[in-house]
Amino acid sequence: MHENNDDDFSLKSLFVPLTTLKAIHWIVIIGLIVFATMLFNGFVWDDKTYILFNPDVQAFNVDALIKTNLFNAGGQYRPIPAIYFATLFSIFNNTTFFYHFLQLSIHILNTCILFIVFTKFFSKSPSFFLSLLFLIHPIQVESVSYISASGNPLFFLFGILAVLLNFAKKISWGRASVIAFLLLLSLLTKEAGLIFLFIIFLYRFLFIRKNIGILFLAEGVSLLLYFVIRFGIGGVYFTKLSLIPIARIPFIERLLNIPEIIFYYLKTIFLPLKLAVDQQWIISTITFQNFYFPLFIDILFFFGIGMLGFYIYKVNRDHLKKYLFFLGWFIAGFSLYLQLFPLDGTVADRWFYFPLVGLLGIMGVGIQSIKITNKTLQTVGYTFIVILLILLALRTVVRNTNWSDPITLYTHDTQISDNFDIENNLGTEYANIKEYDKAIEHSKKSVAMFPYEANLYNLANTYEQKKNIQEAKRYYAEALTYPNYLPINHNHFEVTYIRLAYMMYLTGEYENAKSVIKRGLQEYPNSGYLWIEMAACEYKLGNHEEALSASNKAKFQLSNQQVEYFYDQIIRNQLIKI
Question: Among 288, 334, 380, 545, which is 20 to 30 Å from 345 by CA?
Fold first, then answer.
């Protein structure tokens, strides 16, 4: 006799019937498996600047975090990430595991919410597939593995929650207030949060057309509060990013880069083989390879999207609004990163976090509109989906290993997209581990590509660490002949004046050192370290009163053993050693 056992296990039962709870469980499990290798990666790229060596983050001064600082400069205003990192640093210090785990958790949460959003438009199976693509696609690695890019999943979290709340047929004043608050948080996390205002309005206009006035008012309040906080409280305005190549060229020339920019994202989505950070390339000369061929592929792609819309219009007009909604999502998100307004790089994988949803939504409408009844074709389709997801997951796993440490990342990525900035960063990392010859090699490459104060300073500092005072002095001096191009409200770094003056002091050039110090004090009149060096130079030149005066000014600005030592030595007319 055959006994039916309801508890028999089968692989199919894990997915069929696919419930929301099952889908969320699988999203969490797959997300943790695919991104597990990144949990033990260290601080890389700007993580050290924004977190590890950032006094504002380490002090946790909320007033300082909402005003001008590294997060709120160069045209961007992002106080939420500043507070987020300050909170994490106060709890976990420099243990990167917890930064990575929280960032991955937010990404997984975003995917779960996105699945629910997709189910408002599609059945559960395609919604699950599209959500998994969002979760594991290699283009997401930069947003998930790069700690400093935490603002990307954060701004999306606030915005997608507002989108979800907007699905209600009736919007009460209470719900509108929550939506406004979430949109404000999204804006204060990243300027791209502005697109969520458009998406919420677009959905309301296409599908419901009720309570539009309430939502419009809520969005207006969000924008108003954002401007008050940014300009009134933070005092952060818009500035030109002079260091960035794409920002240094005129608007018309930036337009010539658009075909190649679009082509970059398309090939990264459909064939994510060559991934690299910090891409600073520009199209200076039009060729078939960098303009006409990308333009042809771009036209072909958008023609295909247009034909899909035409097909939907002819075959199933019920899906047309869904198509228009996700098309608007994709175009609105994509348009922000076409360099109509210059950004801090030419392209970046993390910038596609938002537009990817629009593209996936368009795919979802296409899948829903094209019915396949043949079971053999259905089996082939499911097999293709599984293989595709596995291949993308493996590529993501490999890409995560590139992010294990700065030297591994930079060394890999320079083979794909090299530039002055990444070479400068690589030189700095080699100097940190005292591999000075390699540091000098990469710093010199950076200087040869594009000389500016920071890379010349780093080259000089490496020579100083090698005890090559003459070369250090030479490059410190050269650094002061170039702009810093950074939003620091000074012509040059204070430390460049300090180090150059010190090199001159060591080689007995006391008058030249005084001249450099005077220049530095014009920009940094309250620099205790410059006043210390001035005291030392005046003392060496026999100017005892001037040395004492400078020492007093240093003592007023600083209170440490070095200042006390200088002051006491000058008073006693004893030999001074820096």
Answer: 288
